[in-house]
Design a protein that fits this description.
The complex is a heterotrimer of chains A (about 325), B (about 260) and C (about 290). Chain B has about 260 residues and is of the alpha/beta class. Chain B has 10 helices and 10 strands. Chain B has 2 domains: about 170 residues, Rossmann fold (3-Layer(aba) Sandwich), CATH 3.40.50; about 80 residues, no CATH class. Chain C has one domain: ABC transporter involved in vitamin B12 uptake, BtuC (Orthogonal Bundle). The radius of gyration of chain C is 19 Å and the shape is globular. The chains are: A mainly alpha (about 325), B alpha/beta (about 260), C mainly alpha (about 290).
């Protein structure tokens, strides 16, 4: 068995196990809702992990794509009389197209210039959502109709736990497959040296564009799922802080690690829930913990712990 | 018609003429060395031929077709591969994966199949891995295949770059200072490697400072000085050319060489 | 004409604050290659500490001095406790560290102060000056004058003092600077301290016009970062020009296009500039050497 296949089986196996165990160990509606939120965030983070971790392209505006997915799902039924699921599909398509359109000029930029351009893109999306009050409901947010499927009303935390968990499993499977393919290798190669990648035949601009679109689609799907699950969206879903949260999930979990993105998403989704215990100290503690993690586990949790284990085994 | 041909190539950086109407040609199985003092424009010529810079004048032809200014990945598709003077390794990947990336153009890269992990993709992965292993074996790195590239010593990385370039199955291989920074033993290994590559019918163009290596393995030598072609010929004729000695050692060197 | 002058002054005033934030970014970036997203928090601290010190009965100059000191202490602590320990981490990791720091500072400010908006009295009255038919707040002149003084002072410091030269040497080549005996750790700490002071002064100057709260730092950091990138990162002249340009852009977009979309116009222009000039307005085009 190749190393790629081994990783794939290990990650998917552990993920499946966790997905099955959580409802048994934490069966309350509250816990299931938090877990569903984790799976949704993890789906978005996975896309960003492909873009940032594998291909090394920073995006500080990725929540913009999440916002497009979420708001399309909310607005389609309201203004166009579309089915929520069809609206979500359209939103995902729209996010993908936007990424395709702006990707080429944006991805020519490097490092901090890329960071500021993606930041601007995210802010523009957020601004449109906040400002077009008659369409989007503005800063107050908007209701999302209940999802019905063949006459069935999809409600209840158990069901949404299942839906979001399945989507995440699928998203992780696709991401792991991509990692272990010619395209995946090309992405990791251009991360280290664009010049060397191009002289062995990698069309660097095209590959960056492909992974940017994939990351946008992942985020839009996560956004759509969030809208359907939460039944209410506010512009925060597309905001700068949300983008930063997504980046932090990827970095804290471990850049370049698919499993890391999921761990990071879990940590950054559960932590604020847990920190409400600290009441008004919530933000201060969150900031402090982020610094702590980045200073002491700078490669991220998954690669960091893997390194520790390997060293222990050698010792 | 030669396999790779550059004619009248000129480029200037901020008014400074780095190359002035330089040309060369190379045939299959031939080893052409480009030498010259530092700043003569050797690497610049390499970068133009391999598509990193666009020349202000002149043309490059590969297998009879004009390829001047084509992006590197399209040149790679037409059979041109190269290595770098300051290593350009994919340090986040294993040695094996580095070489597998070299097979990029041989792989079919259908995104949907890759996302779904179809059997055809897995089969292709396996094929690439086998081919990459063979090449690592060819350059003498078979035991280090699974090691992260970042753990390999300098001399090994030089050979890893050659293996990666060979994975493109090139018609022309351009080596930018393949032996720079290598000890005599490593240099000798590289030396043997280049001869073996040329014997496969690949045209080799190399920039190198190690004159012993150049004289041993080159069929022809092109000497550059301050962006111009000083002379071109067999290693013997170049070695005894007074202009070359002067360029390298200055006028005193020339006198010394005469005196000797 | 009156409208033009009005917008021009409004733009230059906000632009001056962006320029100061961008200058702070640039200073820290030059010395350490860290993009400090906590830069906006220094501006917040400048305004908030002054407000609360005055509430406690201190006079304005003393309150302002206290605010600058608090910001400088925060900057130095940020360097010692977060940036220094994370030395050698990747660019993105360091960005996350500074964002973590900004969340921490904001969280603390929210507890120590409050969540309300606060104003400071204008330094020299609220009576607008008439210039070519436009009404200019005297405080605007304080902001512009203060920003100009800081830029000039910083230039003097960098060009004329030994310490300033040490900062420039460290920026140019850290290893070489260490080899000639420069204490680069001290230089980095200094860069954080000076950046913090610059940000705080900006915050104090502008609070009488724009109000302040614990949360104003985020947007300022974004704008300052954008301004610094617009000018070409690591270039102090570019940072100031980028800041002023961004301020003017917003003012004219608000006046002539739409006040809701003024930020949008600003970022749209930034995107267009970067598409055409990937190294910013004043950045040098780097040729990759292989």
């Amino acid at each position: 068995m190749s190393p790629g296949t081994r990783t794939k089986i290990a990650v998917l196996g552990v993920l499946l196990l966790v997905l099955l165990l959580v409802p048994i160990l934490l069966p309350s509606a509250f816990h299931l809702r938090v877990a569903a939120l984790v799976w949704i965030n993890a789906t978005a983070a996975l896309g960003l992990a492909l873009l940032m971790g594998q291909a090394g392209q920073v995006s500080l505006g990725h929540a913009g794509f999440m916002g497009i997915g979420a708001y399309a799902t909310a607005l389609g039924p309201k203004h166009l009389g579309l089915d929520p699921l069809a609206s979500m599909a359209l939103g995902t398509l729209a996010a993908g197209l936007l990424a395709l359109l702006v990707g080429r000029p944006i991805l020519r930029l490097k490092g901090h210039y890329l960071a500021v351009a993606t930041l601007g893109l995210g802010i523009l999306v957020h601004l449109v959502i906040v400002s077009e009050v008659p369409i989007t409901g503005g800063p107050d947010g908007i209701q999302v109709p209940r999802l019905e499927f063949l006459g069935w009303r999809l409600v209840g935390p158990e069901l949404w736990y299942g839906i979001t968990g399945t989507v995440l499993l699928l998203a992780a499977w696709l991401a792991l497959n991509l990692e272990d393919s010619a395209t995946g290798r090309a992405l990791r190669a251009l991360h280290d040296s664009e010049i060397a990648a191009s002289v062995v035949g990698v069309d660097v601009a095209r590959h960056k564009l492909v992974v940017f679109v994939i990351a946008a689609v992942y985020a839009a799907i996560a956004g759509g799922l969030f809208a359907l699950f939460n039944r209410f969206v506010t512009p925060d879903v597309a905001g700068f802080l949300r983008s930063i949260e997504l980046v932090t999930m990827v970095v804290i979990g471990g850049m370049g690690s698919i499993a890391g993105a999921i761990v990071g998403a879990a940590l950054l989704t559960v932590l604020p829930q847990a920190l409400t215990l600290f009441h008004e100290y919530e933000h201060a503690v969150l900031g402090f913990l982020i610094i702590l993690f980045m200073v002491f586990l700078r490669q991220g949790i998954v690669p960091g712990l893997a390194g520790l284990l390997a060293r222990r085994r050698l010792a | 018609m030669s396999l790779l041909e550059a004619r009248g190539v000129s480029i200037a950086f901020g008014g400074l003429r780095a190359l002035d109407a330089v040309g060369f040609s190379v045939d299959p199985g031939e080893v052409l060395a480009i030498i010259g003092p530092n700043g003569a424009g050797k690497t610049t010529l390499f970068n133009i031929v391999s598509g990193l810079y666009r020349p202000h004048a002149g043309e490059v032809r590969l297998a009879g077709e004009e390829v001047t200014g084509l992006p590197p990945h399209e040149l790679a598709a037409r059979g041109l591969a190269r290595t770098f003077q300051n290593l350009q390794i994919f340090f986040r990947m294993s040695a094996l994966e580095n070489v597998m990336v070299g097979r990029h153009l041989k792989e079919r890269r259908r995104l949907w199949a890759e996302l779904l992990g179809l059997p055809s993709v897995l089969r292709e992965n396996r094929e690439s891995r086998e081919k990459a292993r063979e090449l690592l074996d060819f350059v003498g790195l078979a035991e280090r295949a699974e090691d992260p590239a970042s753990a390999l010593p300098y001399g090994a990385l030089k050979r890893l770059e050659i293996a990666r370039a060979l994975a493109c199955a090139p018609k022309v291989l351009m080596l930018d200072e393949p032996a720079a920074g290598c000890n005599p033993v490593e240099t000798e290994e590289i030396d043997r490697l280049i001869v073996a590559i040329a014997r496969k019918g690949i045209a080799v163009v190399l920039v190198e400072h190690d004159m012993k290596l150049v004289m041993r393995i080159s069929d022809r030598v092109l000497v550059l000085e301050q962006g111009r072609a000083l002379t071109e010929g067999t290693p013997q004729s170049v070695r005894s050319d007074p202009r070359v000695i002067e360029a390298y050692l200055g006028r005193h060197g020339l006198e010394a060489a005469h005196a000797a | 004409m009156a409208e033009l002058v009005q917008l021009l002054f409004a733009g230059l005033t906000t632009g001056a604050v962006y320029a100061l934030v961008a200058l702070g970014f640039t200073l820290i970036f030059q010395a350490s290659e860290v993009v400090n997203f906590a830069q906006g928090e220094f501006v917040m601290l400048g305004g908030m500490v002054t407000v609360f010190a005055m509430k406690a009965g201190l006079p304005l100059p003393l309150s302002a001095l206290l605010a600058v000191l608090v910001a400088v202490a925060t900057g130095v602590l940020l360097h010692r406790l977060a940036i220094e320990p994370a030395k050698g981490a990747t660019v993105v990791t360091l960005i996350i560290v500074t964002i973590g720091a900004s969340i921490l500072v904001r969280g603390l400010a929210q507890i120590l102060f409050d969540k309300q908006f606060h104003a400071l009295p204008a330094f020299t009255g609220d009576e607008p000056l008439r210039v070519l038919g436009a009404a200019i707040l005297p405080q605007s002149l304080w902001v512009l004058g203060g920003a100009a003084a800081i830029v000039f002072g910083l230039w003097l410091f960098m060009e004329r003092t030994l310490l300033g030269k040490a900062v420039r040497a460290t920026a140019a080549n850290r290893l070489a600077a260490e080899l000639v005996g420069i204490d680069t750790r001290l230089v980095l700490a200094l860069a954080f301290a000076v950046s913090a002071a610059i940000g705080a002064v900006g915050g104090i100057l502008v609070t009488p016009i724009t109000l302040t709260s614990y949360a104003v730092g985020t947007l300022l950091a974004l704008k300052g970062f954008a301004a610094a990138m617009l000018g070409g990162i690591g270039n102090p002249v570019g940072a100031v020009a980028g800041g002023l340009f961004l301020g003017l852009l917003e003012a004219f977009a608000a006046g002539w296009i739409s006040s809701t979309y003024k930020d949008g116009v600003a970022f749209l222009v930034i995107l267009l500039v970067l598409f055409l000039m990937p190294q910013g307005l004043f950045g040098r085009r780097a040729v990759e050497r292989v």
